[in-house]
Specification:
Structural class: mainly beta
Order of helices and strands: EEEEEEE
Number of domains: 1
Largest sheet: 7 strands, antiparallel
Strand order of the largest sheet: 1-2-3-4-5-6-7
Distance between the termini: 29 Å
Radius of gyration: 16 Å
Length: 103
């Protein structure tokens, strides 16, 4: 797995690429992802897409969008929505929200 990010101040971009090999159920997989974080108000608008190719012939696509709002230096609240699809299966949507406090 390799990743990089760059902060342009108005937007922070992220990219990753990874490969996995196994002798069991899934012989090979390759994943690439792109993401962005944009400061908005007291928090950040977040977005990301990822694509995983699994041999033999399956593809998984994931897209996420959300917002992370800072209540203080150590506490934030967040809400996210994720859309996930895999070749040959029904797609799904997941929503999540929470409060995070760093000690």
């Amino acid at each position: 797995m390799v990743g990089a990010s760059y902060d342009f101040t108005a937007v922070k971009l992220f990219a990753t690429y990874g490969r996995a090999r196994s002798d069991t159920l899934v012989p090979k997989a390759r994943t690439a992802s792109l993401g962005a974080s944009v400061p908005v108000g007291g928090g950040k608008l977040l977005a990301a897409v990822a694509r995983t190719e699994v041999n033999p012939g399956n593809t998984r696509k994931t897209a996420t969008v959300g917002y992370d709002y800072n209540l203080s230096k150590r506490t934030d609240v967040y809400a996210m929505a994720l859309r996930d699809s895999i070749t040959g299966f029904s797609s799904g949507t997941t929503f999540g929200a929470g409060v995070r406090h760093r000690f």
